[in-house]
Amino acid sequence: MFEASFSFDCHDKQILVVEDEYDIGDIIEHYLKREGMRVIRAMNGKQAIEIHTAQTIDLILLDIKLPELNGWEVLSKIRQKAQTPVIMLTALDQDIDKVMALRIGADDFVVKPFNPNEVVARVQAVLRRTQQNNQISQRNLLYKNIEVNTEIHSVYINQIDQKILLNLTLTEYKILLLMIDHPHKVFTRGELMNHCLPDSDALERTVDSHVSKLRKKLEEHGLEHMLINVRGVGYRLDYPQE
Question: Do 127 and 18 fall within a single domain?
Fold first, then answer.
């Protein structure tokens, strides 16, 4: 159950609403502005990318069925360069759509037809969670040659003559950020879901998919035998040193 208001102040946050149905977009805009947020509208996927590139956006409400580029393509392109919070809008209430949205890097999703107050509540919840995560640590985390810059939400692999930026989804970043502070701790799938996929009803196998993709990206840069599966429990980042 979502509450209509939170103590977190979303006033003046800039929201990009990407919705090609005027009536739906108008309703969302009205309710967001009523809570003091600023709203920019995009009618297709290409326009959404252009606006996101040109302006500072605090959160994106992104419809899946769009002209030019669909929501999946827009989300994928955004995640290649930024970790802007994204809430997907979909008319399809199917698990595969939810899993796909979270796997690509969405922060949440809303199924049409929706209550506008629920949309506002989800926007507030994601913005609040994002701010809280940003305030938890404004420092660089280091483990072996992995460096996490929490201020700009970026992960690097430090090599002798260069620093390589890893292209991670938001969920992959959250998993690594959680585990790198306690690299030998075994995290259950439930713990990973609560931290990285809160307020979602994704299945635990979704965590396995995110971990597998993150492990592969680390392996591509020579970091073998990390993100270890502890049978029947969950995952640890690395084995304790002897």
Answer: yes
